[in-house]
Amino acid sequence: MSVHSHIRKVTTHVLSEMKMKNEKISMLTSYDYSMARIVDESGIDVILVGDSASNVMAGHESTLPITLDQMIYHASSVVRAVKRALVVVDMPFGTYQGNSKEALSSAIKIMKEASADAVKLEGGSEIKESIDRILSAGIPVMGHLGLTPQSIHKFGTYTVRATQQDERDKLIKDAKLLEETGCFAIVLEKIPAELATLVAKEVSIPVIGIGAGGGVDGQVLVIHDMLGITQEFSPRFLRRYHNLSAEITGAVKNYIEDVKSNDFPNEKEQY
Ligand code: KIV
Question: I want to staple 36 with a disulfide (CB 3.0 to 4.6 A). Which of 30, 118, 152, 206 is the partner?
């Protein structure tokens, strides 16, 4: 039986209830219709149309090059497939950082053209004005602290964040600020597990971790990484649930062999 026949649509309120009930939140990325349909029908709580699309879909080195229109293309494909999960869309680099009016118009474009449920922005106090303005239009906002890949050129590496006292203090302050501002959840990426656990206890909104240990309210992974489609990316926090790259290679090799040997198509596979 499909999960859609007996489970209600996940909303930001449902996620808040899940935190109160101590029920863990599951979140994965998706970027296209077919994958989003499988992920949603499997019963995931939240689908993130991450700007990691820039890496895994487009092959860029970082998340910086992806544009607002490209994110909207991915997001609208995902939304068409999803019946149950909450769909959150990353606001791409350059669409919200400097100017809160531009941030609002970018968020409105995502909501109108992709019919998303919420947007996600990277950063804390530096982007408070943008978050305020987006929230004032009734658009739910998910925060993202710790390793924020859109700031890679500021930090220079993708190593664990908030290991020093000053960065740690700022992260705790930013998490509380995001909560007070009205964000409905926060992603914490690649920080010490003990710090993430503390933040999840200190704020009342759900905290979803990636490389942030098991003491938070939920977990998120990039679908291409957890399915083993990507091969080169192997951080300690990544659990691979499949080796899809090997499976696809095997299938493609079999197909090539069948075409070359004239085994495909056979008599039943033609008109
Ligand atoms: O873009 C993305 O996939 C993300 C997750 C890693 C949280 O932001």
Answer: 30
